[in-house]
Fold:
Amino acid sequence: MTSSADAALTRLSRDGQTETEDRMLGAHAPARPGAPMRGNLGLARFFAVPGQIVSVLVLVMPLLVALYMSFTDWTPTRGSLLDASFVGFENYSELLIYDSRFLEAVTRTVLISVVCLAFEFTLGLGLAVLFLREFRGKAILFSAFLTPMMILPVVVGYTFWMLFQSNGPINQVIALVAGEGAMPEWFRSAPLAIATVIVTEVWHWTPLFFLILLSGLNAVPENPVRAAVILGASPRQVFWRVVLPMLKPVIIVAFVIRGMEVIKLFDEVFMLTRGGPGTATETISLYIYKLAFNDFQLAYGAAAAFLVLIGTLVIINFMLLPVRDQLLEARR
Amino acid sequence: MLVRKLTWPLAFLMALALVFTLFPVFWIVMTAIKPPTDWNAAPAIWIPHEPTLVNFRTLFDPNAIREYGVGGVSQAATASVLGSIFASVTATFFSILIGLFAAIGLSRYATMSKATPLVILSGRMFPPAAIAVPFVIIFSATNVIDTYSGLIAIYVAVTLPFSTWMLKSFVDDLPREIEEAAMIDGRSRLMAHLTVTIPLIRGGLFATTMLIFILNWSEFMFALVLSYTNVTTIPVQLAKYVTATAGTLYGVQAALAVLAMLPLVIGGFMIQSHLARGMTFGAVKR
Amino acid sequence: MKNNRTEIESLLTDFDAGGVSRRGFLRRMAAFGVSAAVANIIVQSPFGARQAFAAIMGSEERAWALAKEAAAKATKKSLTVLIPTGSIGNMTPYVGKWKNELGIDITFIEEPDEVVHTKGMQEAVAKTGAYDVLMPTAMSYPDWIDAGVIYDLTPWTEKYQPDIFDPQWGVVFPASHHAQLYNGRVAGLLCDGDQITLLCRDDYIRNPDKAKAFADKHGYALSTPKTWSQYRDIAAFMHDPANKFFGSLEYRSRYYVKWMFMQRLASKGRLWFDKDMNPTFNSDEGLAVLDDMMEMNKYLHPDAFSFTWSSNYNAFGRGEGFMNICWPSGFKYSKAPSTGPATSGKIAATVMPADKLKDGTLLYAGMFCWGYGYAVSKYSANPELAYAYAQWMTSPTISMDAIPYLGGYSDPYRINHMKQPTQRMIDTYSPEYLETLYNNIVNTVPDFCLPGGFEYQDALDKEIHACMTGEKAPKKALDDAARSFDRITRRVGREKVQKSWLVLAKNLAEPIKKASGADQWG
Structure:
């Protein structure tokens, strides 16, 4: 392809991107033209107030309590929260300097998250691309592929716990292929236990990537694609150079939504490995749960949670940077 | 996009993916109909020779399993099923009601700042294990501990971002002229919203309701922390069938799992065209 | 026994009046369900049969009187009992009596054992009063008392005398102190004798071919192992994986594996801390224990790494191993034909093997792990009734009646359970095994019954597990555990933990006290 065609492709993707964003992110919505209905403050309040009350009472208040807790040395064995003494940032420094288990859990959770998201994205995208093709029974297969994300996380964890038993079906298949001796003890070694967590998580949430990416692919406008084909681009080039760049905002949204949830990974691991062997699969949520509800280091656990919250906020905002303005604009 | 056929190698890939997707579901359903002798047999039994409903009966009559000489359960799952239904349905109702108000407010009136969506998103980033402790404190002080009201309040609050943003995206789709036309007919703004806006988005309303129900029905940690003697839900009961020390009632647990996932799978299929929008806070439209 | 009360009373009166012969008295007492041993005590008592009988029945009767009084006063006519899953079988038989005679409804809330501690501790914050009686392990008491979740039972025990320290039918020392007291005050009433003992397959020991082959190879007679080195020899000798028969069924699974470590460490005369709260296991003894355990891994059942007590009992019952280190209920399971098809009638049990100390003497030590008991919630609407329930259920007579019920895992813990058993108790265990239990329990060392106990446990467990799975080298595992221990001690409060540790260490069996040096701690 000539360099001018190359430039043309890049331009196509750029133009297409705005168009996709408009279609994907709802900016085309008829609400956009015209100023918001103003001059009826009473009614506006009437609509907004219930939601705000609930959010303040049920989310902001606990957050403030947790924030206060995190600066005290409170554990129930020393009396009530009001009696607890204020220790400033002691919990925070303890966590960051001395608590290797916390730091390990953070690293581990980030690693598991990255690997899971990479797999979920790749598999989801692959499947979505397959679904662009024409074949019979598409509707029913679409439903079938979405099944995992409709199953309760607790059930997913329990199901995979059964599948990975040393005498479970997965090992049976392995024995069939590679012989009895090759059957691994999944929950006994750290790398294998982490693998079970990743497989479970990927199985559970690949459908969401599939769903979002397929929505995105279906919304890609046809004109830039046609133009690229006319310019002589191969299907592969069309996909990588035109379609994928146009999908960027959707991809980021998918990563943000999943990223937020996978960082909190708890239910599945709680049922699957309980963080074992040792602490090989202990995620941040499991560790905070242990601090709060096994050890009752409540203040300490709250501090850990705030560190996690700050970390997550930073990462998510960083991820959102490229699309932030568009997202916010689209909301209006 | 240019429409092309699915070639054989690709079809094979898809078949493989389908097996991977459905096998765990197959396994849990099979386990639910296995008699105790087959639960953890080595080698594992894929399809039981003598399928039984004893696991399902045990959920509601703990003594049913004893005909197989297995003990360990002594509380029926009935309370947890009823508790799940009550908490999920009530919380979904309030989440939708409040979310609908907020959605109309956000879509039609400039009531909140531009950054509100991100503020609300950040609420979902906080690890539930840490926020659960303040809930226990506050609920204890306000005397709603060990009541469904407490659990429902949390569920409403944590699903509110979803219901608000998903519903808002449906309201956004609606041309504002329609409401204005109704107002020209002499209806008040409020009446215009009630009689025009809401009926017109009922499809979206239904989809959002299902989604919120799914979220509430699946929730585990808050229920685990807040259940004492009165409050219990299916996920909590599920976790009770396996303990660190006493081992597992595989089949009974699987039976409850199957019961628990049925409404979600059915509900999920009914709203699958709206799922992408729901799971992305309305950011993805279709 | 309870239903024959009036007949027994009149028989006692007759006997004291000289109207009944000794033999006739013993026979008729047996017919009423009173064990021969109890009847013998009564016969020999210098105070007369009536009074002796009243003494042993006293705890139960005082509790019942209190229950009647408290039940009459109570506005809330129910008791809610939080119990760990699997223990209900020993408790349900008495629900009817409480309902019919006192009008009190007893409701059980079952939770997985680890959740029992959580729910109890949460009461410090939640204050629901949802539970009246709680059944935690002995490790929960320190934190629960400090958090104000449960009552210090001492004022009640002084008034109503549950006879927990009675030399004839009290709880066996030192469990009586380790598993019931916190800093010398009664925090809970023990209801489960959670010690571990060693079970062997008697049919293999009696096999002359095996016996000869073993004696030829090792130079001593095949029997139940007396020492840890014999234990390993025998496990290696019996290990036959080709026929799915393994040397031993020790635990290597998370949550359990620490006890296998602690037991061996105790056998070497080491406790968990020195008198200044420095961990003592990151030492030569600790490393030797880990080496021994790694060596034993070769002769273990392949499921050892995932065993829970039920899967362990089942595997042993199916005949998949020669030895098993397990709780007394494991003996019960392997004895009953339904749960021990391959082992019924073929079990020889022994106290835990001894280890050779530096001075060449053998030290027999046992491990008291878990130890369930009844505690009374501070937020209970009827604390006196709750206490009465606890004392009644754990009284020498009712507990003797309750333990043999199947469907629960309560095991003997009072002296009379082992020394003066009823026929039902004997049928459930065996005279030899009850004797073994007694000989083992007197040498038991306590679990982490300290403030922050669960944290210590978990920190040790995770490192031992990591070492057993090959994730960590022994030295590193022990050093890391020791570092975690120091952190926990610092965070919980050194003085507080040290105080309760010294109290625990005061009440040890003499040989262990001497071997560990705790006798010098003052």
Remarks:
- The mean pLDDT of chain C is 91.
